[in-house]
Structure formats: structure tokens, C-alpha cells
């Protein structure tokens, strides 16, 4: 199949099922909030490096996690019980995405979060669409993750850590909170051993898109993205 070119003034995306074997669907367009929300609502996300056009992807298979099926390894339970890290929501989004820009994704080191993508996700955060989870050691940000929320789906984008287990503890808190808020699915995008250990599993692109069509139209609990006082992810 041919890779579609997206014009800046048109919010249209091709059918995600037409993506190539590697998941590449289209190139071009822009990173406006309207286009990004439309992309995620259709199971599509941007991923490209410096000097490249904006590339849009919808991989097959897709790695997903149901928040209610989260598995917490025993060693990580001990870390959480030790309360090494303080976890917050949406308190340091720019710092979290900045930290993620300096970690590896696949075979690339710190290149996929180009400045215009960082700016675009900061805009989404200001609109209440993108969210972050932070892990703190005292007053120092030592890990975290960010992603995009559409309906009852959370699209995880990236995480980073400066202390062992910091991002893992943040992820456990996020998954438990998403369950509490009635989210039905976490899109993990691509398969990693790290995420498989938490109970994530692969489904076909067709199944993912079928579930997304339903969940994107539903609303999470009204308490979503407010950290409950005294929240304990192990209870």
C-alpha cells in the first residue's frame, strides 16, 4: 500500500487498518491539538526523529493492559510498601516529558521526542488531554510517565527514571488509579518485556480498534485525574 500524505488544513486520516506491516500509515500534517486528539481517537500516534516529516503509526499487533488485570511483581510490592517515592499527578508535566526526551525508545536514544512534539504535548496537557504521573524523592523528580486520555482509554507514551524502580512505582499508581476511575484500557503501543511483566498482552490491530470505538465515546469517573488523599495502590 502507499503511505498517505496529510495536508495541514485537513484533519482527515486514512483507515488505520490500511497501515503497512510495520504500522506506518501516513506522513505530514501537523501536531495541532485537534489533529492529535483525532489521531489518538482512531488508534494513531506520531513517532519520528529529527529531520524527518511527521510520521503517523498504527501498529499490529498492539500491546494493551486492562487496569483491573494489573500484575505487581513481589519485589516491586516491597518497594511500594517502603514508600521510597512520593507520587503525584499533573504537577510537573513539562519536566516529565523533558526527562522522557533523554531516554531510549527502541533503538533510538533520545531522538524521537523532538522539540515540536514536546511543545505539542505540553499544549495537550494545558487543555487537560495529556497527563503525567511523577515520582519524587524528597523535592527531586526522579521518574515519571505521561500519556493521552481519550474517553476511557489512556494512551501511554513514555516514561523515565533517575532512581531504580521510580517509573515502575509511578506506573503501578497510574494503573490502579485508572481502574478506580473506570478506564477500560491502557494502550502500551509496542511490546516490551517490562510491560508484559505487569500483565499487558498483545491483541490484533482490528480488535484494538474495535474496542477503541466503544471506549472513546464513554466517560471516566468524575474524580479522574485527582489524586485521592492517602491513596495506596496495594489496597
From TrEMBL:
EC number: 2.3.2.6
Cellular component, GO annotation: cytoplasm
Keyword set, alphabetical order: Acyltransferase, Cytoplasm, Transferase
Top EC group: transferase
Reactions accelerated catalytically: N-terminal L-lysyl-[protein] + L-leucyl-tRNA(Leu) = N-terminal L-leucyl-L-lysyl-[protein] + tRNA(Leu) + H(+); L-phenylalanyl-tRNA(Phe) + an N-terminal L-alpha-aminoacyl-[protein] = an N-terminal L-phenylalanyl-L-alpha-aminoacyl-[protein] + tRNA(Phe); N-terminal L-arginyl-[protein] + L-leucyl-tRNA(Leu) = N-terminal L-leucyl-L-arginyl-[protein] + tRNA(Leu) + H(+)
Subcellular location: Cytoplasm
GO biological process per UniProt: protein catabolic process
GO molecular function, one term: leucyl-tRNA--protein transferase activity
Any coiled-coil regions, as ranges: none
InterPro entries membership: Acyl_CoA_acyltransferase, Leu/Phe-tRNA_Trfase, Leu/Phe-tRNA_Trfase_C, Leu/Phe-tRNA_Trfase_N
Family per record: Belongs to the L/F-transferase family.
Function: Functions in the N-end rule pathway of protein degradation where it conjugates Leu, Phe and, less efficiently, Met from aminoacyl-tRNAs to the N-termini of proteins containing an N-terminal arginine or lysine.
PANTHER family assigned to the protein according to its UniProt record, in alphabetical order: LEUCYL/PHENYLALANYL-TRNA--PROTEIN TRANSFERASE, LEUCYL_PHENYLALANYL-TRNA--PROTEIN TRANSFERASE
Protein name as annotated: Leucyl/phenylalanyl-tRNA--protein transferase
Species per Swiss-Prot/TrEMBL record: Desulfobaculum xiamenense
